[in-house]
Amino acid sequence: MTSILTNNAANTALLNLQNTVKSLDKTQNEISTGLRVSTAADNASYYSIATSLKSDSSALTTISDSLDVADSTLATATSAIDEISDVLSKIKDSLVTATTQGADRTKIQSEIATYQAQLKTISEAASLNGQNFLSVDSSATGYNDTASFVASLSRSSDGSVSYGTITFSKTDTALFDSNGDIGILDKVDSTTTGSFTNADGTTATATADGKSVFNLDISALTDEGADLAMINAYQKQVEAAIKSVTAASSVLGSTQSRIESQKDFVDTLKTSVDAGVSSLVDADMNEASTRLSALQVQQELGVQALSIANESSQSILKLFQ
Q1: Where are the domains of the chain?
Q2: Is the pTM above the cut of 0.70?
Q3: Which of these, 220, 247, 251, lies nearest to 234 by C-alpha position?
Q4: Angle at which helices 8-33 and 285-314 pack, to 10 degrees?
Q5: pLDDT at 227 over 70
Q6: Are the C-beta atoms of 105 and 221 separated by less than 8 Å?
Q7: For residues 301 and 299, what is the distance between their CA atoms, to the nearest angstrom?
Q8: In the structure, what pLDDT confidence band is assigned to residue 21 with cuts at 50, 70 and 90?
Q9: Fold of the 49-282 domain
Q10: Would you say 112 and 91 are in contact if contact means Cβ atoms under 8 Å apart?
């Protein structure tokens, strides 16, 4: 039946054309933005997952940057502590020289004092980004003995996020501590015993006189057996300090190694997360381009079909001519 009130063919052609235009607009938006899921309306599930993953990716970038700073800080401390080990060895050598009878201990002490000043200077200079693990003040307000570095991120099934850290105790690395001189190098020693065998076979002994490696002084010591025994006690004190400094260096070195390894993992994880986001929301440009060409053809055909359907109504006028 032909009707002048309803043109079913035109309505059908118009509906098809509208659907084609809608699909064409969506495809053009994908091409212009590069995203097939740009809003929650496109795919609520994918959009939600991608948003969480993007947040994690941003956090991983921040963690990676933080680990970079931590690596540099520890590298500074490690380099400084290596220098300090060398200086301690020089102090030990000077003390060995001082055990020789007739040695000018005033002059030797002048050399040792220079080395002692270097110990302090190097330790205080081993600071980066406000962090110094060699020279501390454990009595300072807000001081925390635990050095902590954010190293990882994990998201549980309920969506909550937790962060993992790499830590070590500053007590193990502090060479100087202003809080009562309790660092490795400024800690006083009143227990180490030294000895010296005299020419007559007798042994003189002496106990460390409450000084630290940083402020020991041999300038007033003589060739007497007891004084030479004190120098031997100082030697043992420095040797013990070298061992402690070596242990501190191991703590810093192992922590730095963990941080470098963790940074590599974080960077790899971020790459994987970014790839996951891409697979969820990015448009396949090859597919979108092919679909765009097809829809453009469909649009042209739809316009022609609608035009033909509208012309069929005009033919009714000829019946009344």
Answers
A1: 1-34+295-321, 49-282
A2: yes
A3: 220
A4: 160
A5: yes
A6: yes
A7: 5
A8: confident
A9: f41 fragment of flagellin, N-terminal domain (1.20.1330)
A10: yes
